[in-house]
Write a structure and sequence with these properties.
- The chain contains 19 helices and 17 strands.
- It is α/β, with parallel strands linked by helices and 513 residues long.
- Helix 10 links the parallel strand 5 and strand 6.
- The relative contact order is 0.18.
Length: 513
């Protein structure tokens, strides 16, 4: 019996491997673990030095701790991407030709009836399937969508929104300021790339936004004769398959990723729900491709029965003290036992080696400490009845049916004194980084992409383009500045609390005789 292996390499995995998982293909437990960190992730974070400045004389309070101002990441990169910030005027000039063509077609398109607009869509589909390039169809397609939006939504896309659509069609990331209408912009390239009949995925961060966008701006492509689908959390496989077959499908990043993993574990063609990948538009692209890139998607199946060792490990973790028996890396969500921690654990358990392959106590102890220090009740999870339910750290929603892998969920259950459910084994996993790289054409939009442009270009080969605003900006943006702190005996928070509210003592002036 062959078991599906987890996808852990950095290379792009095949979408339809030949698998035989008859013994494990039912009763899958979906889990999304934030503790599994790829060592070969590849994002080169910028770190700023904390030392080297001169101390200011004559300062008081917290300012006395300042060693020297350091520009924050936004300030540094703001200077790189243009003098006083790039306003997108170069982008406006680059796409001015196509914008002029679209505006020239507008008087003619506006005189067409609703049925004639749909006939234009059918004609565009025919040309796309006969080999005409999408670039050649872009002016007419955008003009048709603009008119349909005006009739259906009462919204006529501005010229800068047309530019945003062209940037997305080109396979780049469009940075558009908040309030510039990114949701409406996504319809333009989605419609154009759907003309070839290969499908388009519009990815959002949660179910609410996917449903809202599908029901609102999705009216435009529906009006023009295209099929628009929606994927939600509790849909059946038949419903998912039907919606993925639509010309444009709205879906969240997690649902799309899990459907991909389930397809890779399918034992027959009839179980597949996804078609071939073609074109993907990601809303809030920095959140999905950068912030959540380290979070893997994992499908697990039931393994052996739970062990009482979880309860023993939980008692040991409770007795151990931080920085004495173990150290914690809060950013990477990892823990390490100190020499004293190893010695005390071996003495309590009466074993010679925590890593003895016949016992493997180390994994139980480390998971128990993680559950104590890194996974907090009513923050990372809630308890409902006798069950530990994970709370999504990005959306704040309860993830029903999801479980942490590698014994971590059982360790949290033991910490809370709840019945321990069956352990699981990882059947398939993939990171968002590897997953989205499988799309032949990928793009995204957000209001804050310039500060991550190095990561986007280095990892995903995506260029960041700043789209100009419809009206001149009257708001003045001051770049954030951070200050490195001098080493003190107490934490900055403690120091601030002690000094807050204290009145400054005025020096008495000496009277002159």
């Amino acid at each position: 019996m062959a078991i599906a292996q987890p996808f852990e390499s950095t290379s792009v995995v095949h979408r339809r491997p030949s698998l035989s998982t008859s013994a494990l293909s039912s009763n899958f437990i979906l889990s999304r673990s934030s503790t599994w960190l790829r060592a070969d992730f590849g994002i080169n974070s910028l770190k700023l030095s904390a030392g080297g400045g001169r101390r200011r004389e004559g300062t008081r309070g917290l300012r006395r701790l300042c060693v020297g101002p350091r520009a924050a990441l936004g300030g540094i990169l703001g200077g790189i991407f243009g003098k006083d910030g790039d306003t997108g005027e170069s982008t406006r000039q680059m796409y001015s030709g196509n914008v002029a063509l679209i505006n020239k077609m507008e008087p003619e398109i506006s005189t067409l009836s609703d049925s004639q607009l749909r006939e234009r869509t059918s004609a565009l589909q025919e040309r796309a399937r006969n080999g005409d390039s999408l670039d050649s169809l872009l002016p007419e397609a955008f003009a048709v969508v603009r008119e349909a939006s005006r009739r259906v939504l009462g919204l006529r896309p501005f010229d800068v929104q047309l530019i945003g659509g062209m940037v997305l069609h080109k396979g780049e990331i469009a940075e558009m300021k908040t309030g510039e209408g990114k949701t409406l912009v996504a319809i333009l390239p989605a419609f154009l790339n759907a003309l070839a009949g290969k499908g388009v995925h519009v990815v959002t961060v949660n179910d609410y936004l996917a449903r809202r966008d599908c029901e609102w701006v999705g009216q435009v492509p529906r009006f023009l004769g295209l099929k628009v689908g929606l994927i939600q959390q509790n849909m059946t496989s038949e419903q998912r398959r039907e919606n993925y077959l639509c010309d444009i499908t709205y879906v969240t990043n997690s649902e799309l990723g899990f459907d991909f993993l389930r397809d890779n574990l399918a034992t027959s063609v009839d179980e597949l729900v996804l078609g071939d990948f073609n074109y993907c538009v990601i809303d809030e692209v920095d959140s999905i491709l950068i912030d959540e890139a380290r979070t893997p998607l994992i499908i697990s199946g039931p393994a052996e029965r739970p062990s009482d060792r979880y309860y023993k490990a939980a008692k040991i973790a409770t007795a151990f003290e931080r920085d004495i028996h173990y150290t914690v890396d809060d950013k990477r969500k990892t823990v390490l036992l100190t020499e004293q921690g190893y010695a005390d654990a071996e003495e309590i358990l009466d074993v010679k080696d925590l890593y003895d392959p016949r016992e493997q106590w180390a994994s139980y102890i480390l998971n128990a400490i993680k559950g104590k220090e890194l996974f907090l009740k009513d923050v990372n999870y809630i308890i409902r009845g006798k069950e530990v339910l994970i709370v999504d750290e990005f959306t704040g929603r309860v993830m029903q049916g999801r479980r942490w892998s590698d014994g971590l969920h059982q360790a949290v259950e033991a910490k809370e004194g709840l019945p321990i459910q069956n352990e699981t084994v990882t059947l398939a996993s993939i990171s968002y980084q590897n997953f989205f790289l499988q799309f032949p054409k990928l793009c995204g939009m957000t209001g804050t992409a310039a500060t991550e442009s190095a990561e986007f270009e280095g990892i995903y080969k995506l260029k960041v383009t700043i789209v100009p605003t419809n009206k001149p900006m009257i708001r003045k943006v001051h770049f954030i500045r951070s200050f490195s702190m001098k080493k003190i005996d107490v934490s900055p928070c403690t120091y601030f609390c002690r000094t807050w509210g204290k009145k400054k003592k005025k020096k008495k002036k000496k009277k002159l005789l």
